[in-house]
Amino acid sequence: MNAPATRKFRDPALVDCGAGRRLDRLGGVLVDWPCAAAAGPQGDPAAWKEAGVVHAAAVPGGPAAWTFRADPPVPWRVSMPIGAATITLEVRPAASGQVGLFLEQLSQWRWMAARLAPGARVLSLFAHSGAATLAAALAGAAVVSVDASRQATALARRNAAASELTDRPIAWIEDDARKTVARLRRRGESFDAVVLDPPSWGHGTKGEAFAIDRDLPPLLGEVARLLPAAGGGLVLVTCHSPRWPATRLRDALAAALAEAARPAPRIATGPLGLSSESGRLLPL
């Protein structure tokens, strides 16, 4: 008698979402964590019972924390295919309810990597755990990776080591994105590509407040001036702020490029989101 076929699951993957939460498969572990965009009912309620890691309050109205119903692997990592190779990212549950990586960005990293010529200079702003930085490095680019968080930069460096990319030309800068861009402009530097995923709110290394409504348009104006004056540069900008849909990002980027006297660009736009294995769409 033939043995029953073993079902192969995608990993990492969004398994289901709904009721303000998402269920992800990360390195063989089901993670149940909060997500305000996950509206409507859950598509596969039974799947949630298998969650090994949950971020929730122990009692209604109490403080939320991570509960580990099963021991995750050590080290706890996932591999993300970028072209013919992969980057490896550490799963790091934080008190905020985040897990240290963003599956919805995978298609963006692939899009960018496929368009970078070997030796291209790339500026990665708000680099967080370094995934965009590593995708660019994997494509053969020289990358300046910027994040104001010491913890995020340390995580990004660990991800570079896990991805076997420590020998690539990556400059790690722990500083405010706006200050770094201004400094690079004063030096007369230019980049073939810039990638940024700004937060709705944030702080620099010295407490400088960042608010996306106020600070993104002028930042894009400075970024535009770091691109080649003759044109041909690439900008990838995404965000998770509900007040900044793709159309608003497009208009802000187009205005910044025009003000910087860069050639009229071709701008592609689209929603940021994930489809779950249960058939639900999670808009992000």
Describe this structure in words.
- By secondary structure, the protein is α/β, with parallel strands linked by helices.
- It has helices at 106-115, 131-138, 150-162, 177-186, 212-224, 246-259; strands at residues 13-18, 21-26, 29-34, 53-57, 64-68, 77-82, 85-90, 121-125, 142-146, 170-173, 193-196, 201-203, 209-211, 234-237, 273-275, 281-283.
- Strands 1-2-3-4-5 form a five-stranded mixed β-sheet, with no helix packed on it. It has a five-stranded parallel β-sheet with strand order 10-9-8-11-14, covered by helices on one side. It has a two-stranded antiparallel sheet with strand order 6-7.
- α5 packs across α6.
- The longest helix is centred in the last third of the chain and has 14 residues, at 246-259.
- Mean pLDDT is 93; it is low at 1-6.
In short:
By secondary structure, the chain is α/β, with parallel strands linked by helices. It has helices at residues 106-115, 131-138, 150-162, 177-186, 212-224, 246-259, and strands at 13-18, 21-26, 29-34, 53-57, 64-68, 77-82, 85-90, 121-125, 142-146, 170-173, 193-196, 201-203, 209-211, 234-237, 273-275, 281-283. Helix 1 packs parallel to helix 2 and helix 5 packs across helix 6 (246-259).
